[in-house]
TrEMBL record:
Annotated organism of origin: Actinomadura algeriensis
Membership in a protein family: Belongs to the CutA family.
Domain of life: Bacteria
Protein name as it appears in the record: Periplasmic divalent cation tolerance protein
Spans through the membrane: none
Amino acid sequence: MAQSYVQVTTTTDSRAEAAELAKSAVAERLAACAQLVGPVASTYWWENEIESAEEWMVLFKTTADRFDELATLITDVHSYDTPEIIASPVVAGSLDYLAWIAEQTEPDEDADEPDAD
């Protein structure tokens, strides 16, 4: 069966938390790449009120097979009670880029964690 790819989106209220989520996901090989976008203006319902907030978006590039583990990491690290975790299927893409995603998200039991320089 061919590999399936997804782009996973979450948002948070600080650039620092967005960067922490991105680095954690890439370090654990749950995402090949994570991009920070922001700030973005969000408007949403929360506890029966319309809220507005400035947030940072994180876009993770990964395989569908790694989604559940990535979603768990986001939930565990995220400061929100109910973080946004949305996976959008990648319908098409550069074959070289998609192969790179698959290679970078392959679990590597023996690899040491990269230096945090």
